[in-house]
Structures are given as C-alpha cells and as structure tokens.
Design goal:
Distance between the termini: 49 Å
CATH topology of the largest domain: Immunoglobulin-like
Largest sheet: 6 strands, mixed
Helix content: 10-25%
Strand content: 25-35%
Bound molecules: calcium ion
Radius of gyration: 22 Å
CATH class of the largest domain: Mainly Beta
Number of domains: 2
Order of helices and strands: HEEEEEHEEEEEEHHHH
Strand order of the largest sheet: 2-11-9-4-7-6
Length: 284
Amino acid sequence: MWILALIFWGACQELEAREQSLAPSVNTQTITPGTSVSVTIQYATANPAQTQTTGLGVWLHYDSSRLTFDGFTQLLHSEERLGADRRFALIGRETTPVEDAEDRDGDRSTDQKVGVAWASLDGQWPGVDHAWPVTLFTARFRVAEGVSGRTMVRLSASGLANGYTLTAGRAVLHTTDAAFAVLDVDQSGAVDASDGVLILRRLNGASTVDTGVVLGEGQTNASVIAIIDAAGSSLDVDKDKGVHASDGVLILRRLNAGSTIDTGVLLPDGQSNATVISTIDALK
Ligand SMILES: [Ca+2]
Ligand SMILES: [Ca+2]
Ligand SMILES: [Ca+2]
C-alpha cells in the first residue's frame, strides 16, 4: 500500500513540476538588412499559474554576426517604470554583450548574450499590477547589412526561483528570401509535429488545417495550404507516384520522432521503413 502511495506521490510531483516560462510575444518575425528589429519577451508561470516568486534572471542569446544589441526598452521594474513601488529590485542589467561561452542555450550560432535579473525579497515578483503573461522587456537589435536567411534569438536562465525549472521559447528572425525546409509548412523555423499535423490534414483533403495549431507570424490557413500544395510530389515519401493521406501518416509519425513509421502502411516494392525515413529526413 505504501508503495502505491509513494508512486502516487511521485506522480503528483511529476505533474506539478513548477515552471517559470519565457517566450517571445511573436515566434517568427521578418527582418530587413540594415534596419532594426525588436524582440519582446513575456513571462509566465505554470503549476501554479500566475504566481509570485523570488525573481528570475534571463539571458538573451543571439548571433553577433547578424545582430547587434541596441538596448532594452519597456524593461519591467526599471527605474523609469518602478514609480513609488520599491518592493522589487532590478538587480542586474548586462547591456554590454558578453561572449556566450557556456552556450547554455545549446546553439553555437548564438555567440553573444545580454542579461537582466530581478529579485523580490518577500517573494512577490513580478507583482500583481501586470496582466499575464507579463512583458519583461523589449530588446532592440540592429540587423547587419547583407544578412539573409534565418537567425534565432534564444533564452536561458541565469537564475530561477527555488524549485522551478525553465521553459523557454525562441524567436525566429528571417529575411523575406529565407529558404524554409520543405516540411516546415507553418514557417516557424523548425520542422516538428505541428507541421506533420498540418500536412496530414491537407493530404486528407481538409480545407481548414490550422485548427489548434499556432502558425508563424504572417501565416494563415490559406498560406499554409498554399505551401503544402506547392510542395507537390516531394511529399510522395513512399514513392508510389502519388501524394496521399498515407504519405501524411508517414510524415507525421516521423515528425513525432517515430523510428517505425510504416506500421499498417503498405509500401511499394523497393521501399522500406528505412528508405521512407531517409526520404522524409531529407526534407527537414
Ligand atoms: Ca549559444
Ligand atoms: Ca514548423
Ligand atoms: Ca505516396
């Protein structure tokens, strides 16, 4: 009995992992070489939601060959914005970029970082006077001349409230001529299961494919459908000379990290689970 109780307790702990989460207000933005771009970062908590803590330290990571940091605006609890309320301290603001030597964001292309941190001794950060998600700051960058393609602005934590883990999103910045992977049909900058869902729905003949799927900036149901339809025969991943729902099933299974994707799908002669996987992976 006590073992069951322990397992139950463990399951509850698992379910209730406390999170501080950071995400850009828009996941994908278009950039123009030689101009500026602003990335606004929002904060929330989960388990419990919308709760006060002792604070948070944030690093913003970026590729200095493409972006030059140009300062924070709208910084939460900065002196300009603190007014009479002194319960919060903005305890650090690294406006001079430093080398991203630790690479805590796991992306070698982001070689520099800037940081900001807040603390509340009585555990009342970010305070109750803000709508959730709370806007922490807007970071302005200058975009280098001659840039093309995609670049990421990523997030990591320099400090978390005790007992919390970090969930971090990332901003995808891209020029208008950036090439997206064939399977990145929502143009989010990443090929993932969301793309698989959209593709499968379309190959099933659906005319509304984006239900419940968050699309990249500027993307609509119609634009995603146009991208999928334009992909044409490259989506024929089982190479039976037709693009069918079965191709969508195979793609979605693979984008869900499946290593056996042909269960229940009849493959043509010469095709195997391995050949289909390599065809799909070549489109990522
Ligand atoms: Ca990095
Ligand atoms: Ca995508
Ligand atoms: Ca096919």
